[in-house]
Amino acid sequence: MKLDKLVGERFKEKPSDCIIESHALTVRGGYIKNVANGIYSSYMPMRRITKKIEQIIREEMDRIDGQEVQFPVVMPATLWEESGRYESIGSELLRFSDRNKSPMVLGMTHEEAAVHLVRDYANSYNKYPFMIYQIQTKFRDEGRPRAGLIRVREFTMKDAYSFHTSQEDLEQYYDRCYDAYNRIFARCGIPEVVTVKSDSGMMGGSVSHEYMLLTAAGEDTIAVCSECDFRANIEAAPCIVENEKDAVLEELTLVHTPDMHTIDEVCTFLNSAVEKSCKAVVYQRNADDTYIVAFVRGDLEVNETKLRNAVGCEIHPAEITDGCGLIAGFIGPYNMDERITVVIDGSLKGATNLTCGGNKLDYHYTGFNIDRDLGEVEYMDVAAIKDGGICPQCGKHSVTLSRGIEVGNIFQLGTKYTKSMGMTYLDSNGQEQYPIMGCYGIGVGRLAASVCEAYHDNYGPIWPMSIAPWQVHLCCVRSDDAATKECADKLYEEMQNAGIEVIYDDRKVSAGFMFSDADLLGVPLRVIASPRNLKENCCEIVSRDKTISQKTEIGEVVETLKKLISDMMK
Amino acid sequence: MKLDKLVGERFKEKPSDCIIESHALTVRGGYIKNVANGIYSSYMPMRRITKKIEQIIREEMDRIDGQEVQFPVVMPATLWEESGRYESIGSELLRFSDRNKSPMVLGMTHEEAAVHLVRDYANSYNKYPFMIYQIQTKFRDEGRPRAGLIRVREFTMKDAYSFHTSQEDLEQYYDRCYDAYNRIFARCGIPEVVTVKSDSGMMGGSVSHEYMLLTAAGEDTIAVCSECDFRANIEAAPCIVENEKDAVLEELTLVHTPDMHTIDEVCTFLNSAVEKSCKAVVYQRNADDTYIVAFVRGDLEVNETKLRNAVGCEIHPAEITDGCGLIAGFIGPYNMDERITVVIDGSLKGATNLTCGGNKLDYHYTGFNIDRDLGEVEYMDVAAIKDGGICPQCGKHSVTLSRGIEVGNIFQLGTKYTKSMGMTYLDSNGQEQYPIMGCYGIGVGRLAASVCEAYHDNYGPIWPMSIAPWQVHLCCVRSDDAATKECADKLYEEMQNAGIEVIYDDRKVSAGFMFSDADLLGVPLRVIASPRNLKENCCEIVSRDKTISQKTEIGEVVETLKKLISDMMK
After folding, report:
1. Interface contact flag, A116 B33, Cβ < 8 Å
2. Contact assignment for A36 to B75 by CB distance below 8 Å
3. Which residues of chain B have pLDDT under 50?
4. pLDDT tens readout for residues B408-427
5. Quick one: DSSP state of residue B302?
6. Would you kindly state where each structural domain of chain A is located, as residue ranges?
7. Does the pTM exceed 0.95?
8. What is the pLDDT of residues B1-42, one digit of tens each?
9. CATH class for domain B253-380?
10. Most A CBs within 10 Å: which of B117, B153, B158, as the mutation test of the A interface?
C-alpha cells in the first residue's frame, strides 16, 4: 500500500471533544470518523487492526472447540419477550417496528438468538457440551457514548455461548475460556489485562468475571487487594467496615439543625465524627417512580449497581417532590413514611449513637441505635468499598481502587435463558432437563482502542506487531533523488514479495512531515531510505517504540525485517 | 471437527415453505435457520462458506487497489436527507428513532456513508482515484422475502465505492472491477455467471451491469440475444416492435361492447387481432395516489420498472375508485380525463386502426389512429420485451427470455451523491469539481445460495472446493470395529497435521445414515474407512460430484488428498 493514496486525514491538533488519548490519536491518525453520537466509520488502518484482532479471537475460540455461527442484527421482539428481557431492559435496547408493524429490536447481545438457534437441535444429553460464537455488529443505545471506540452505540463484538448438562461441566469449560481469553489479550499485546469479579447485571447468572485493562482513562473502578489475589469491580466488591460499639447507648434525641442539608454540615455542627452518622441516598424505581432510600454510614457512598441488585429492579437517582413522604436533607430511618422502601447497608451494623435525619424539616436525631430503635433489621450490601478499605477475602486494610477499561467478560448464566425459553434435553435417564449456559464477550473496537490507550506516546499509537495495520513503514526520504527512489522502490517490491505487510511513503514531502505521519500510523518497524543512508549502502531500521535503531546493509534489509517481525510476534 | 458435535439439524423431508432447491437444501442440511420473515441465523457450515466467499472477494478487491473500511449499520437520517434518498426511497428503508428521538435508518446501501467518510479528505485532484469497500450487514425491509438466502431482509454484502476525477477514469476503473467480478464468481465456482445491462433504479447513474446466474429459480428476467452479444435485464431492455401500416385509415367509431372488460374479450368480439388493439394499464403514484395510465400494444405487457423510470417516481398498481375519471375495462387514450397522466408506449407507434377503450361504460373505439386522433405524441419505452422479440442491438427476431439470480451489480453513479452531499475537490487548475462515483455490490449469502442452486443433486449441495465448508469428509463406517476406528482416527490426525480441512464422522450409525448426512454437507471429497477397505489396506476416495471414485492405499491417502484438493481449487 502506498501512503499517498491511503484514504483518511491525519492532523496534529487534538480535537476538543477527545478526553482520552486513544480517542484523540485514532481520530488524528485517520483511523475512525464519527458519523453520529457513538457511531463511527473505520478507515483502512483501523479495519486492518480489527481484522487481525478478529482473527486472533477466532483462532482461540476455535481452539476451545467453538463453532462460528452468525446471528441476525435485527431480531423480532417476540424472541426477547420469551426471555423476559423485552420488558426488563431499558432504553438501551433499541425497539422499532418494521414495515408490517411487527415489533423488532437491534441485537445488543444474543443469548436469545443462541437459544433459538440450538433449542430444536440439542434435545439429547449426548449432544452436549458445545459452544457457538459469532463476530458481529451490535447496537446498544447508550445514554452517554464517550471516549471514541471505548463506549459506543454500534460496535463489533465476539459473543460466545456454551451449553452444558451440569454445573461442573460449565465450570470446566469456563476455565478453558478463561485461559483462552488470557491468550487473546496477550496475543493482542496487552498481557497485563487482569480479571476481576464482576456484577452479572442484566445478563443474569451468578459467577462472572471481567477482563480489565488498568488505566486512568478507564471508566470502571476496580478494587484490588495488595495482600491477596482479591480483585473485583467495585460493583461486585463487598464493602466491609468495622464499627466500635460505644459503652453507653445515648437516648434518641430530636435536635434542631436549621438549614443543614448534608450529613457533613450536621456532623460539623454537632461536632461528631462523620462515621457516627447515617446517611440517606434516595432513588426511584424506573417502572413506577416509587421511592427507595438507602442508608449507609456517613463516610461511605452508595454504589448504584449494588443497590439495583439488592432491590431487584431498574432505578435512577430520585427527584424528591412535595408530598412524597420525604423531606430532602432530613431523611432518617426512624419514623419513616411507610410508602418508602428502606435499604440499610451493612456498614451500619453494630454502629451506635448515630446522627441521622429526623424526617422533619430542620431536625436530626442523635443517639440513634438501630437495634434498639428499629428492632430487627436486614442488612444489605449496597455501599461502595473505599480506597484503603478492608479486603473481603483476607480481611486486611489493603484495598486500593484503580480505574480500568473492561475489554472482555465471561458469565455463568445458569438456566435463566433455557428455562424462560423452554429449551430442554433428555438426560441419560430419559428425564427432561434445562441446559446450563455460559456466555463470553469481547468488544473488538474497544480492544483496539484499549491497546492504543496502553501503548502510545505523544505522537501516536505504538501498535504491537500482532495487530498493527502494517508490519513495516517504508519511508523514502527525498524521493526526488532518483537513486534513493529507485532503492526504495526496489525494497518495496522485495518486501511485498517476501510477504511483509508494508506501507510505502514515497511522497515528495519533508522527512519531518513523513515521520509525524508514520508516528500516527504507529507501525512497529520503520525503514528509512535516504541519500545519506544510500551513500553508506544502508537503510535505517528503527522501531516505533524506540527500542531498535540500527543501520542495515540494503541487501540484508528484507531478511533482517523478517527476523524482527517474527521476534516481535512472540 | 467431529460431526457428532456439529450444531444443526439435518433431515430428509423438504420443508413445505421452500419453493427452490437451494432454500430446501440449506435448511435440510443445517446451514441456516429462520429467525423472522427474511431474517436468518447461520450455522457453522454456512458461516464457513461465507467466510471463504468473503476472503475471495477481499483478495480480488485488494487486487484492484480497494481499501477495506467499515461503515455503520445504523445511520442518522440526516445523512440520507443530504442525498435526498430519505424522502425518495420507500418503506424498504427502515426508519426509526433512537432513545433521544433522533431519526435513524438501517443501512441498505452505503453511498451516503462513503461520501461522508471521504469528503473532507479527498479535497484535491491528486488524491484520486481511490476505492473503498466494506463487507458488512445490511437491512432492506423487503415486502416479499423469499427463497431462503436469495431474497432476505438482513444480509451481508460487499459494497465498494470508487471516486474519480473524470468519466474516462471511472470507465477504466469500472472495467477493472468488471474483470475482478468475473474472477470472483469463477473462483467461487460459478464461472457461468453472465453480465447483463441493468436498470440503475434508486442508485441513480446511467451505465450499470448485473451479474446473473441463469437458472429457472431466478426471480429476474433476462433478455438474451442468440445472434449477438446483447444481454439485458428485462427492466433495461428496450422493447422494439414492427407495425404494419394499413393502407386505409378507418374512422374512429364508438362501438357497444357490453361487459367486455379485457382487450382480449373485445378483440374476440370484434374479430380483430390483439396486436391491433391498444391496452391500458393503470398505476398510481405512491406519493399522492394520482393516476398514470400506460398504453401498450395489446399483445404486450407493461414493465413496472421501465414505467417507473419513465415517469420518474415511485408507483404501484392502481385501485380504480368512483369519480377518479377512469372507467375500468373501458379506458382509452382518446378523450381521456385531463387529471390523468398518459404514457404511450413505443409499441403503438405506426400502428393503425386500433381498438381501444371508449372512456365510457360498455363502449370501445375502433379505427383509432394515434397520429390523426391524438396529434403529436411522445412515445416512451415502457413495454416488456417478449420472448422471440426483436434484439435492440442486432435487430433480429432473436431474443429469448431466461430467469436469473442477480449475484452482483456494478453502477456508474456519476455525480448524484457528490453533488447532493456537497463533496468537491480542486482540480489541477484550482477549480472546484464534483468527483464521479462508481459503486459495486455483491451479496455474500445470496452468492452462497446461488452456488448451491447451480450445483446440487437430490441429496444435497455439491460445493466447489474453493468455498466448501470443509475439504474432506472422513467417514468411519463401523466405528465399533476397533481396527477401523484406529485407522480412521489416525487419518483424521494426519489430515489435520497436513492442514487439510476435515470433518470426521465416527458416529456409531449405519453407512447409509452417514452418507446421507455427508451428501447434505456437500463436502467435495469423501474418504471412507471401513473393515472391508481395511482388509485391502485401502480407503475409498470419492468426490461429491461422482467424477472421482478410487481406492487408495492408506499410506497414500493424505498425499492423494492434497493433490486432489489442489487440483480442485483451480
Report:
1. yes
2. yes
3. 202-203
4. 999 999 999 999 999 999 99
5. B
6. 15-193+416-453, 253-380, 470-568
7. no
8. 999 999 999 999 999 888 899 999 999 999 999 999 999 999
9. alpha beta
10. B117
Q: Is pLDDT above 90 for A313? A: no
Alpha-carbon distances, residue B468 vs B73, B188, B472, B560 (angstroms): 28, 9, 9, 18
Chain position carrying cell 435485527: A74
Task: Name the minimum distance, in Å, from the CA of B269 to any CA of chain A.
Answer: 44
For residue A207, pLDDT beyond 90: no
Distance CA A439, CA A207 (A): 11
Measured from the Cβ of residue A312, the count of other Cβ atoms closer than 10 Å reads 7
Domain B3-237+401-453 matches domain B470-569 at the CATH topology level: no
Cα(B202)–Cα(B225) distance, rounded to whole angstroms? 27
Q: State how far the Cα of A440 lies from the Cα of A177, in Å rounded to an integer.
A: 8
In chain A, the residue whose alpha carbon lies closest to the alpha carbon of B33 is A117
Q: B interface mutation test: which of A40, A67, A111 has the most B CBs within 10 A?
A: A67
* The pLDDT value given to residue A75: 97
Question: Does B35 sit within 8 Å of A76, measured CB to CB?
Answer: yes
A539 has pLDDT over 90: yes
Which of B9, B106, B153 is nearest residue A120 as measured by Cβ atoms? Answer: B9
CATH 3.40.50.800 matches B470-569: yes
pLDDT recorded at residue A312: 87
**Stronger pLDDT, A119 or A336, i.e. the higher one:** A119
B-interface mutation test, from A33, A131, A157, most B Cβ less than 10 A away: A33
The CATH classification number of A15-193+416-453 equals: 3.30.930.10
3-class SS of residue A264: helix
Measured between beta carbons, which residues in chain B are less than 8 angstroms from residue A96? 94, 96-97
Q: How far is B1 from chain A (nearest CA, A)?
A: 8
Residue of A nearest to B93 (CA): A99
Q: Which residue of A has its CA nearest to B143?
A: A99
Q: Domain A470-568: give its CATH code.
A: 3.40.50.800
Name which of B44, B79, B127 is nearest A67 (Cβ-Cβ): B44
- For residue B82, the model assigns a pLDDT of 96
**B3-237+401-453 is a CATH 3.30.930.10 domain:** yes
- Looking at residue B383, its amino acid is A
Would you call the peptide bond into B258 cis, given omega within 30 degrees of 0 as the criterion? Answer: no
B62, B74, B142, B421: which to substitute to probe chain A, counting the most A Cβ within 10 Å? B74
CB within 8 Å of A481: residues ≥ 6 apart: A531
Output the CA–CA distances (angstroms, integers) from residue B61 to B68, B180, B210, B481, B533, in the order listed.
Answer: 8, 7, 17, 50, 46
Residues of A in contact with B65 (CB under 8 A): 5
- Contact (Cβ atoms closer than 8 angstroms) between residue B551 and residue B540: yes
pLDDT digits (tens, 9 = 90+) for A478-514: 999 999 999 999 999 999 999 999 999 999 999 999 9
In sequence order, what E strands does B111-219 have? 130-139, 154-164, 194-197, 208-214
Point out the residue among B1, B76, B98 whose CB comes nearest to the CB of A94: B98
pLDDT, mean of residues A213-228: 90
